[in-house]
Each structure stands twice: as C-alpha cells, then as structure tokens.
Amino acid sequence: MTVPARSHTVAVAALLAISLLSGCGATSTGAGAPPNRTPVASVPGALPRPDHILLVIFENKAYQQVIGAKSAPFLTSLARAGANFTNAHGEQHPSQPNYIAQLAGSTLGVEDDSCPQDLGNQSNLARQLLDHGDTFAGYSENQPGIGFTGCNSPDGSYARKHNPWVDFANIPSALNLPLSALPADLTALPTVAVLVPNLCNDMHDCPVASGDTWAQHHLPSYLDWAQTHNSLLIVTFDEDNGTNANHIPTLFVGPMVHPGDVAGRIDHYAILRTMEDMYGLAPLAEAANTPPITGIWAPGR
Which of 30, 96, 219, 300 is most enclosed, with most CB atoms within 10 A? Predict the structure, then answer.
C-alpha cells in the first residue's frame, strides 16, 4: 500500500479543527475532560455511508506512545494518510468497560475485567445493524472457534474481556468469529466488522512495535481495497497506559476521509454515534448525547 504524503497547509488544518470542534462535542473543560452531554439530533444524510467499516481496536497505549513514535512507523503513516484525532479518549480503566461502551454506548455497569459478563438483550450496535437489514461480525485473533464463550484461550493469547459481542444474548453466536474466519474476498465482509488482535499483537502484553508489525501485515490489503469500494478503516485503542487523561490514538482512513490532524475531543461514544448516523440507526445511551464526527469528510463523499 502506498500511503499519500500530507500536503495540507496550517490554514486547512486549522479549519478542520474548528469544524470538528463544532461537531464533535469539544468543550472548554480541558483536553482530558469529558464533554457535558446533552441530546444531539441526527441529521439524515449528513455523513457518508460506507459500504463497509472495519474497526480495529488495540490496547493500553497513550497517543504519544504510538503516533509519531519510532516503534510505530506503519500506524503513524496511517495517521498521516487519514484523519488523525489528536484529542481522543477512552471512557475509563481497565479495558473491558471501554469495549462495551464502544458497542453499546454505555459501560452497562461493568467496571472491571471480570469474566464472564452476561449483558442479556441490552441494546448494542450489532443488534441494531441486524434489525436494520445490515450485517455485523466480530473477529478475535486466536479465539479458539466460532461462538467460543470461554474467558481465555488455552494458550492465553485470547481474552473474552476484549470481545464484548460475546456478552450479549441478542447477538448470534455465529457472528463471534476467530480472525481466521475473516473473508479473503473482502466484498463478503459485513457492513461493520470489529477486529481485535491477540494479547500480544494488540500491544497489551507486547511492545508497540509488535502491534505495528501486525497492523502492517494485516491492514494494507483492506486499505487498498477500501479506496475503490467506498469503505472505511477506523483504528482506535481501548484505553491509554493508565493515566487520568486516558488519551488514546484514533484514526479514520478511507476514500471519504479528508486527511489531517483533528483537534476536537472525541471518545468511543463519538465513534459509535458516527457509525449509527451513517447507517440511519437510533443512537444508543451516551451516543445519543454525543455529536457524530464531522469536518473530516471529503466533499461529495
């Protein structure tokens, strides 16, 4: 994959930042502070509708540990090729509540990494997509098999705490998949796919360089394909390395994305709200009080 060089002026970057500040819930409470949330109405047709979204979630690294770091040249190149959110945040620590928040718009009362969680038939993005006639699948590297419900794989490289879709009774077990089930024919991807590397490749147990190497191996084919198939890549992290700011890397890359650094504050709820608005879904829980991401979309896309 050839990653385009950044060619934007400071003025354009400033305009993007201003646009996003008006559309992403940025506040004057400081970079690490969550916004004061009030209900935000959806605007039909305001966002592009990708044919496919691939959401990849890494683990436990702060923004400055990845973007611009020598150990993450590939992920840094993606940040330069797409919308690089310089003020993105997780909801809390530890990991599991952030994964649930990304899927459900709420941590649903989960405050730790305890396993198993039983979240029953509570609302979530996967169920919304299915009920709307769209599709969803979650892919976890080294998950032992389709529909696996164990808390860990025998070799310890997979952890259910990083796989929120298995916790909901209203998400079919057939959509809880190992990475090996990711289709070689990318046109067979669901509308929204979530991909979680194993505990080494997601940077939880291994250095940033391990995750960057994994990303360089697994993501270019999708990125190249996405350019001609109206599809979007989202890369984010569950949480940072344990700070109160919880400042994480997040980037969007695709043919509909205008590249550049984006200063407006976002979090997992903003990502969820953006996906829900793209597909005409009612925003869930905190996502209903969070503006979708605007100001990064290329004209006409």
Answer: 96
Contact 77, 3 (CB under 8 A): yes
Q: For 48-289, which CATH class?
A: alpha beta
Residue extents of the structural domains in the chain: 48-289
Residue 90's closest CA among 276, 204, 234, 240?
A: 240
Half-sphere exposure of 175 (CA within 13 A, CB side): 25
pLDDT average, residue stretch 10-27: 36
HSE, side-chain direction, 13 A CA sphere, residue 94: 7
Tell me the three state secondary structure of residue 153: coil
Q: Which residues contact 279 (CB under 8 A, 6 or more apart)?
A: 49, 129, 132, 134, 191, 192
Helices (H) and strands (E) in the chain, counts: 8, 11
**61-94: per-residue pLDDT in tens?**
999 999 999 999 999 999 999 999 999 999 999 9
Q: What's the whole-model pTM score?
A: 0.89
Strands 88-89 and 247-248: antiparallel
Question: 14 or 49: which carries more pLDDT confidence?
Answer: 49
How close are the terminal C-alpha atoms of the chain, in Å? 22
Residues 99-154: pLDDT tens digits?
999 999 999 999 999 999 999 999 999 999 999 999 999 999 999 999 999 999 99
The CA distance from 282 to 258, in Å, is 26
Give Cα 47 to chain centroid, integer Å.
17
| C-alpha gyration radius of the chain | 18
Closest CA to 271 of 104, 142, 158, 127: 104
Give the whole-angstrom CA distance, residue 104 versus residue 108: 8
CA–CA gap between residue 94 and residue 167 (Å, rounded): 17
